Amino acid sequence: MRYKSQSVAYWYFAVALVLFGLQLVFGLLSATKYLGPDPLLYILPFDVTKVIHTNLLIVWVLTGFMGATYWLVPDESRTELHSTKLAYVQLILWTGMGVAAVIGYLFRYGTGNKLLEQPLPHKLVMVVCFLIFIYNIGMTIKKSGRFTTTEGVLVLGIVSSAVLFFPALLYYENYTVSIFYRWWTIHLWVEGVWMMIMGAFLAYLLIRLSGADREVMEKWLYVIVGLVFLAGILGTAHHYYWVGVPHYWLPIGGFFSALEPLAIVGMAIYAYGAMRRSGMSHPNVLALHWTLGSTIFTLFGAGLLGLAHTWPSINKWTHGTLITAMHGHAAFYGAYAMITLAMISYAQPSLTQGRPEKGTSIGYWAFWLQLGGMFGMTISFATAGIGQVYLERIMGMGYLDAQLKIQIHFVMLIICGTIFATGVALFIYDFFRYRPRFDVDEPAAEGSTASDARVS
Amino acid sequence: MERKKLYKPIRIVSFIVLALMLASVLFAFTMTGLHWTGINV
Amino acid sequence: MNNRQARIFAWGSTIAAAVIFLGLTLDSHRQFPNLTNAENITPEVTHGKDVWHKYNCINCHTLFGEGAYYAPDLTKITQHRSEAYLHAYMRDPGSFYDEQRHRRLMPQQNLSEEEIVNLVKFLDWVANVDNQGWPPRPILVTGGFTAGPGSSGAGQPVPVQSSSTSVGVRPVDAGDDIRALGENVFRTAMPTCVACHSLAPGADGAGPSLAGIVRRTEALLASGNYQGQASDVEGYLREAIVDPSAHLNTGGMYSANGVSFMPDTYGESLSEEEIEQLVAFLTTLK
Question: Is C80 within 8 Å of C138 (Cβ atoms)?
Fold first, then answer.
């Protein structure tokens, strides 16, 4: 840690990891309900556990993004944060909002709009948090006068996230129109601006970890951003299948979402190329694992599994089945959970006292158990989903009867989910094992290190 | 700000969450066992 | 490619994609009223939508295939179930499905009568949205097309028609046997017969299985418990199609307050000839 104010990231990461753990609790509860009569039917019915599961995901990933940004910006701009106080206020507001939302869902206080279930007051608090965040980051960069491309992409990603949240605040009379704009927020977050944020984190980590040349890395970052938006914006169309919009969205969705893996393949090549060219000499090997792992798992989950059911003539059979759950779990985990965990792994040796730079052995167990567990979960959803598509959609068996035939895959889901949860538990335990530090451990180098020397 | 003091509470919270995770895993396996004979293909 | 060209590519492709996207958005708005029958969005439908949101339905069910995957898709539910059925179902889901048998159950939602009526109105609006012909084959809640004799004919291709009951439907022409024509009516009439009735013994859906309907009808007519006007099996079947409430079948699952849950629209939607064919088919189910 070069700048004292970077230590705010610790608290963001701490909150993010606690919420991550909670997310899994509700995920496991939801999976269990597929097995048979549910003793929690009137205490925690499926709709409640599921809404909490997905909302915690959004909240913890965003908390992680914010923490990672507060870590990254001082490093890139070589200055202290504009205001650590604002950063803490933002964290308290944000966490309060998240916790209040989850408690509200337990009592069915929500808007029932998929993934945007947060009631309006909560959404307004989110807007306030975004604004504080953008202001704080913007002032930091302005004060330093040093603005790198990586930062630029990151800030643009954050600002666009806030802007794209706007349609979620409005009320729509027509259900189809409300779906149309819901995806402006959700899809353009996930496959647009969050990808941009992920790309920025990736570039930052690769520059630091592999010592790759900044100018080359940032050039390719531009190319990736271009590809992300070229495919991502028009790729929104794949959410407009079968919801009552004009027919031309079908071919557009098919074509542009088939292009979406390009950007993801680009990212993986980018990471692999950087590592090959410059070697994996950085002592923080654990962070390297997470960084490379993230690009590879994104390629698998978002790229390959997304492509598997994105073409309209395939999607008309798989739409609204567990095939979507398969893709969703692998894609979100690979792209957003893993990149956040990569940033945490990169930052934590200098955020805490006495942690070895190369990572602890618990840290490696956490990595491999999570990876294996999530891979198994994805396969469980895939086998269940394929069964569901053939029995229910193609053979015409009734939904409830088809579900009985695919129950066994949920046993596998729970086993793999447990392996995954073990990995997450180890990560959480490992994170909190060392106490945080609030002092600077290396002098703030003014353009001294090799990787920092060239700024575009 | 005495942020160091916050380490302990959040560490305790993290242990609570870990305990909840363990509880949900145990619950999931209990239910798997209970419903084992009801699961058919 | 140098840094500047990469930057131009990033901005250029983003702006191009955004411009096209916004253009298509405008055009979609032009078409929404038509595609979604916006004139039918009455205050009741809007209230029904709010009920849908308020009770968090989408985190178990799907609508247009969007939502969670723990409960059936409801996009076309009003084409598979009568209003009376849906109202009764919403009052007490537990009397329609058994948690032990189906391994899961919808919790009692305690909706007011007004909420129930408007929710079903909303679902009916959804069912009529032009959603690009999805689902390609009806998504049923229980039962299914495969559970019964006489699926598609040997060696004959099965035409896949969008938004019709096409699985296992043998193509027919007017010269075919009346029973074959009747089976075709059974599989293609709207609302879909097979959405509720299976042909497999004991496989009751939202309606009773029709396997052995002839034997059961004969027993019923002989028993003296029959309340309708018919005097023979054909007459009974015709009456059951046209006026489902004339004689109520056993069980609270199939009717409420003396009214059958079976849609009473077949008398109008089917021609006299089709009803005759359907009866002829049903009398084969000894």
Answer: yes
Q: How far apart are alpha carbons C56 and B20 in whole angstroms? A: 25
Q: State the complex-level ipTM.
A: 0.95
Nearest residue, CB atoms, C36 vs list A51, A176, A400:
A176
- Domains of chain C (ranges plus CATH)? 37-127 (1.10.760.10), 178-282 (1.10.760.10)
Residues near A184 by Cβ (< 8 Å), separated by ≥ 6? A164, A167, A236
**Residues A91-147 pLDDT 10s:** 999 999 999 999 999 998 998 899 999 999 999 999 999 999 999 999 999 999 999
Whether residue A384 contacts residue A413, with contact meaning beta carbons closer than 8 Å, is answered with: yes
C144, β-bridge pairs: A397
> Which among A15, A29, A407 has the least Cβ separation from residue B39?
A407
Provide the 10 A C-beta neighbour count for residue C236. Answer: 26
Q: How far apart are CA C120 and CA C87, in angstroms?
A: 7
**CATH number of the domain residue A323 falls in:** 1.20.210.10
Residue-wise pLDDT tens digits, C162-177: 333 444 566 677 778 8
Domain that holds residue A349: 201-437
Gap between the Cα atoms of A195 and A157, Å rounded: 8
CB of A124 closer than 8 Å to CB of A197: no
Q: Which residues of A fall within a CB distance of 8 Å from B1?
A: 88
Cis check: omega of the bond before C33, within 30 degrees of 0: no
- C223: amino acid identity, one letter: S
Contact between A153 and A202 under an 8 Å Cβ cutoff? The reply is no
The DSSP letter of residue C36 is T
Interchain pair B34, A24: CB under 8 A: no
Q: Which residue of A has its CA nearest to B15?
A: A429
